[in-house]
Amino acid sequence: MMTRAVDRTEELAAFLRTSRERLDPDEFGLPARRRARRTPGLRREEVAELAGVSIDYIVRLEQARGLRPSADVVEALAGALRLSPGERTYLYGLAQQQPREADKPAAVAAEPLAELIAELAPLPAMLLNHRYDILAWNREMTRLLVDFEALPPAQRNAMWLCLRHPELQKFYADRETVVRQGIAHLRAAWATHPDDAALSDLIEEFLDADQDFARWWAERDVAVNGRGRKVLRHPVAGELAVRFEVLAPIENPDQRVLIYRAADDASRAALDRLFAQ
């Protein structure tokens, strides 16, 4: 049996109706005189009041009459309907809108992910966001790279460290490839987060401070690299090779778990000696 293509207008209407009907009016503190009802969930006028739109607008949306709500209206509806993060993302997708940057979570590690990073030891691991800000790390990653805790928060950024930290500028055997991959990721992030002033400022800083970055940025490569191999020149462990894996959590799609693993037996032995110190 084949499934027909999704009609966004009809699906938006159905999603709004079912989301409204499954809400418990008692959880909204509605006046007693308004609680008696024959239909489940909230009434359309109640959702309209909570979202700050007209009743007619809600009616037209639920009747699939061709409306395309703005990002502001989508956010208001998501709040009124108490949508989960996944449901909120789905609503934005149906409305063909992008969440405003101000509505997105701050650059703070999700607690379960921070716990995961610690528990991944002895594998070096850290948590990044779309800007390459380093949100959480384990001891092994600090032994391999740098003591993030000792850095000012503004310098806890993987691209900043690669470009500007004096101890890491010659850390990667193939620095050009590492930087180019980072630039391709940042360009993709820049396009999908157009209102992220912190990201724009970071890119401007790199363009002004690093000629290689500026030249490679102008080539407009776009890619998100989730797996690969790097050769590191560690000041204590010597030259070693690692494979990296980037995992994207479903619950926190703007955060990434980065894990390093030894790429060969000699590198594994070098890491074991380093982490035993």
Automatic annotation (TrEMBL):
* Chain ranges of the HTH cro/C1-type domain: 34-88
Domain of life from the UniProt record:
Bacteria
Q: Which Gene3D superfamilies does the protein's record reference? A: 3.30.450.180, lambda repressor-like DNA-binding domains
Mind telling me what this protein is named? Helix-turn-helix transcriptional regulator
**SUPFAM superfamilies referenced in this protein's UniProt entry, alphabetically:** lambda repressor-like DNA-binding domains (SSF47413)
Instruction: Give the matching CDD domains.
Output: HTH_XRE
Write down the species: Amycolatopsis silviterrae
SMART domains in the cross-refs: HTH_XRE
Upper lineage is: Bacteria, Bacillati, Actinomycetota, Actinomycetes, Pseudonocardiales
